[in-house]
Amino acid sequence: MGCSRWVCIVFVLHLIYPGLVDSNGFSDIPKKLLDFAKKSEVFDWMVGVRRKIHENPELGYEEFETSKLIRAELDKMGVKYKHPVAVTGVIGFIGTGEPPFVAIRADMDALPMQELVEWEHKSKIPGKMHGCGHDAHVTMLLGAAKILQEHREELKGTVVLVFQPAEEGGGGAKKILEEGALENVKAIFGLHVEPHLPIGKVASRSGPVLAGSGFFEATISGKGGHAAIPQHSIDPILAASNVIVSLQHLVSREADPLDSQAYFSAANLFIRFSLGFPEVRILRAVVVTVAKFQGGGAFNVIPDSVTIGGTFRAFSKESFMQLKQRIKEVIQGQAAVQRCSAAVDFLDKDKPFFPATVNDKDLHDYFQIVARDMLGTDNVKNMNPLMGSEDFSFYQEVLPGYFFFLGMQNETLTKLESVHSPYFKLNEDILPYGAALHASLALRYLLEYQPKVSLLEHNHHDEL
Fold first, then answer.
1. Is residue 191 within 8 Å of residue 441, measured between CB atoms?
2. Which CATH number does the domain 212-345 belong to among 3.40.50.300, 3.50.30.50, 3.30.70.360, 2.102.10.10?
3. SS3 state at 306
4. Chain-centre distance of CA 278, in angstroms?
5. Residue 463: pLDDT over 80
6. Element (H, E) at 195
7. How far apart are CA 45 and CA 23, in angstroms?
8. Residue 461: enclosing H or E segment and its boundaries?
9. CA 1 from chain center: how many Å?
10. 402: pLDDT strictly greater than 80
């Protein structure tokens, strides 16, 4: 052949997609889509959508109005969709309706907390707030839908839009999969806003990026009595306190002392690990947090029982399951030492265990190419794993997936609070970046995937 296979692919694409592919091949696509997303009419529309969602936050599996808004916007665009999926979810389709299929996902649910930010579009629902950026996630996916719908005739394949309920502990991703909504999807991409990363920058990594997590609750029972005669009681508060101290020691033993340090404060303990070590040591890092301690209602009465609860986290399934077993053993064993009994519940019926979020290596390489073409090499960062968790991990258990963080910090403005804070604020300038990245990852995946398959098949037939 007189030219390489890659050059031939680009030449074919130039003939088929003259509006998207130029002499630089694929590299200009992300910038063009970002320019589209930054148009005033598109940006203003996204801001309006985001503020409507923010004013009316809904908890997991209750996102009925949010789902209604999404469907109304998709109807305006002429995008087909399925609803309901997983109670309130919406699955949209843009393209040919035929393989290959690539998915982009946004979570819809809010948090059970009171917003303390005073502004024109503050939450109108007492005790509920979009304090994790999911209102922006939905908006950016709708923005991506608008971009992709503009180029629908150029898609040789199908982009699947996943508007998912109940990410915050409800395992909405698991229900999406159980209903078969992503059958035949070849890859899926997801993002999360990051208030401590400058706007225009993204960060992620290959392999483990977020930990797997689970919940536990234990009722430690003793014998109540008057505080003046504690010798006639069996004190569950003392037993629960010893349990927490023992959990601290458990975590210290489970973690690799070379790459972690244990910190203990009141009823909260966690592991913070050094992040410059090999992957095998990262996989050994674990966290147990006791965040719930309830017992007693009077100053002079020892209660009959105490309830404690919290979360546990690890980067590998093996470490996670070992930690779960040891938590149960420690709670029951230490309670018995104080002559108490303990019933341990891991709450997995209502709060399913989240696997670790593990990024596909090939998709990591692909993401870096697309993101660098849009944002520049210096704005695409490799990050260290975080002990937070994400139910995006359920998707990654069954198909290649990639999850990344999108910066929104503007250093010239007020410092942004972390997610899950009642003072969390979103920098709406982030919206075009997320929309364009979603669209670029999906569109370019199909443009690169389909021609390669076709060309390889063509060459194969020539050889026959």
1. no
2. 3.30.70.360
3. strand
4. 24
5. no
6. strand 185-198
7. 33
8. helix 431-463
9. 45
10. yes
User: Which pLDDT does position 450 carry in this prediction?
Assistant: 61
Beta-carbon neighbour count of residue 57 at 10 Å?
Answer: 27
How far CA 431 is from CA of 37, 43, 322, 446, in Å, comes to: 8, 7, 41, 23
| Helices and strands, number each (H, E), in the chain | 12, 18
Which residues fall within 8 angstroms of residue 370, CB to CB, at 6 or more apart? 30, 437, 440, 441, 444
Alpha-carbon distance values, 32 to 38, 124, 195 (Å): 10, 37, 26
The verdict on domain 5-210+356-456 having CATH code 3.40.630.10 is: yes
**Which residue type does 161 have?**
L
Domain boundaries in the chain?
Answer: 5-210+356-456, 212-345
CA of residue 382 relative to chain centroid, distance: 17
Give yes or no for a contact between 405 and 194, defined as CB atoms under 8 angstroms apart. Answer: yes
The better pLDDT of the pair 449, 382 is held by 382
The greatest distance separating any two alpha carbons of the chain, rounded to the nearest whole angstrom, comes to 95
Q: Which residue has the tokens 């299929």?
A: 101
Annotated binding residues for Mn(2+), as ranges?
Answer: 132, 134, 168, 192, 420
Strand-pair partners of 220: 306, 342
Beta-strand pair 305-314/286-294: antiparallel
350's CB contacts (< 8 A; 6+ apart) are: none
| 5-210+356-456 and 212-345 have identical folds | no
Q: Quick one: pLDDT band at residue 8, thresholds 50, 70, 90? A: very low
